[in-house]
Amino acid sequence: MGWLAGFLAVSALCGVLAAGLVIPGVAAAGASVSGSISFFNSLPSDFAVETPSLSTKVLTSDGRPIATFYTENRVKVPLDQMSPFIRDAIVSIEDNRFYEHSGVDLRGIMRALAHNLTSNDGRQGASTLTQQYVSNVLNEAKLSQDNGDAMFLSAQKDLGDKLREMKLAVELEKRYTKDQILEGYLNIVFFNRDAYGIEAAARHFYSTSAKDLTLPQAALLAGLVNSPSYYDPVAHPEASLGRRNQVLDSMLRLGKITPAEHDAAAATGVGLSVTPGKQGCAAADMAPYFCDYISHLILNNPAYGVDAASRQAKLYRGGLTITTTLDSRLQAAAQTQVDATAGANPDKWGASLVSIQPGTGKILAMAQNTVFLPEDGKFDTQLNFNVDARDANGNDLNGAGGFQPGSTMKPFTFAEWLNEGKSPTAVVDASRRSYPVGFRWRDSCGRVLGGYSTPQRIAGLGADDDLQNNDPGYYRPMPINYGLYNSINTATFAAAAQLDFCGIQKMVNAAGLHSGLDNAPINMHQLGNLLGAIGVSPLNLITGFATFANDGRYCAPIAILEVRDAAGKKLPAQTSDCRNTIKPEVARGVNAVLQDVLKRGSGVYINPKVQSRFPVAAKTGTSNTNGSTWVVGYTTGLATASYFGDTLEGQKRPGRNITINGKFYKAIDGYMLAGPQWANYMMDAAGLYPAAVFPAPPDSKPKPPSASPRPSR
């Protein structure tokens, strides 16, 4: 008698539906049925069909994929971009009367009831595609609100839930066409934890697109939605094939395919070509650290949401298309070079390259010799060597916090020398090594701190030892430009002794330099900072040097060219932020001297082919412990910072008595590892951004006779 009770219950339900849907205004005989009709009519009939969670893609400026962010891996596609096979297959197996009913299929309900009561050949469901779509939309709304625990699975629905679902399905059919509902369903339905919607499923299981699905592929995926775990073709290929063939049988019976097509498709195997889902920067196709930088630019920007949670939702659910400034050609060249310099060194020495375009601030390449996640034989870290600790002015510490720039800070003192109207060839006394605490520096806005005086150090008066050069033969009077391109410490201090430290401070600020740890201005009243004692990130340092390359016009670095939402609407992105900060004649004077670094100065041993290919200026740099080494150089079209050194926490290791790629170094210097890395990269990359001849400074004079070149800091 159980089957009879079930039959009567469902018959009553069908009566309620018929009355509620067809003649809701007519009173029914019997209080029970009348109450059910009233209940049905009182159910809500409207709900918002929001765009489901979509994947965000991050692209290079030339359209190459960098990475994908998602909570649910879904790519929305229109119905006409789906294979006809998948449209026919899903309708044939899930709801073959889809184009005939009005959202609820009473005939289907009765057929399913009769089958379930009289057959042991599995249970049949009676939910139409429209009802399934309603259920998916309701559950997706809960997921988007991080309320997944409130989702309703089919087995958990009571009669009231089913009635509500039916009512909404009927109303939905009044608002949308059948094709719109089918499109929505195929874009929202779950196939696999890495594949939501048909486009993601096609890519995941067959490495193809929804529009190119073949008949057997489409039939398999259509069969999968009934039970994605049980019919998983990877885990259960036999069950998957059996279900696929049921779909093919239904398509044949309904006249969607010919017998020949059916037989040919049924004779094929699973034929998978799985492309696993790749989510986030750890799985980026390229530039994982640049990807991480981009993610924080979005997550820290109120333009993408009023709070952190809404910005997170925008990035991981919003279906954004983020086009960045990265040039895939330069990125490939940069990655090749840092890997060649120190890709798998067991002592975990770091190497990095970052390039920007003078005149726009666009970041064109950002690479380092590490991997994002642990990997055998690799140096792994999630710290980005190239950016500030607070990389996007947010709260997350994702950058290494910079490294001591050493002698790459010297051009800024020289720039102030020129700014105060002094000759670039004036002779300074580089023989002086003692600048004791209390030395009478010029400082119109503060007080110079620190000193270099061995007796004062011994006496405990807060001084360091007498000032040292890298080589003993340069404690003598010399032209200031000669002191710069040979990187003579005592020449820089001799110049500073004639300058207003307030002017040096303004020059460093004009180039945008700041501490890599907290973004605070570099205090140039602290003597050690003349020689680069405060850590600066490679991106910040090269932005400062690009100001010289750009005739004294500073451009803040930018990384995002365009952001569009899932509907194609433009969202706020970044635009070039440039301003005149250094006099053009000062920038030109600096460029003139820095071109000599590679020709006759501290970088002469790097690679002579570089300066023969295009006009280029550069500066070497090495910290006192040799733990941080640099070459920072540029053409008018491309500016690049190259770094090699200690990137571990605290950065306390001296760069001495180390072996890199089988070569022993008693002490590393800027020209040794960072130098070839920079030069080899520029040889590959600089030609892609044509360089002009640097404009000559107004007081250009013949250069002094060449001195014996010597590498220095």
Can you walk through the features of this model?
There is one protein chain. This protein is an alpha+beta fold and 713 residues long. 38% of the residues lie in helices and 12% in strands. It is built from 23 helices and 18 strands. A five-stranded mixed β-sheet has the order 2-1-5-11-12. It has a five-stranded antiparallel β-sheet with strand order 7-6-16-15-14, sandwiched between helices. It has a two-stranded antiparallel sheet with strand order 3-4. Strand 11 (560-564) and strand 12 form a beta hairpin. Helix 15 (410-419) crosses helix 21. The protein is elongated and about 105 Å long.
Q: What is the CATH superfamily classification of the largest domain?
A: DD-peptidase/beta-lactamase superfamily
CATH level-3 fold name of the largest domain: Beta-lactamase
Distance between the termini: 96 Å
CATH class of the largest domain: Alpha Beta
Task: Characterize the biggest β-sheet.
Answer: 5 strands, mixed
In what range is the share of β-strand residues?
Answer: 5-15%
Strand order, sheet with most strands? 2-1-5-11-12
Rg, alpha carbons: 35 Å
Q: Please state the structural category.
A: alpha+beta
Q: Give the rounded overall mean pLDDT.
A: 89
Tell me, briefly, the overall form: elongated
Number of helices: 23
How many domains? The number is 3
Fraction of residues in H or I helices = 25-40%
CATH level-two architecture of the largest domain: 3-Layer(aba) Sandwich
Total number of beta strands = 18
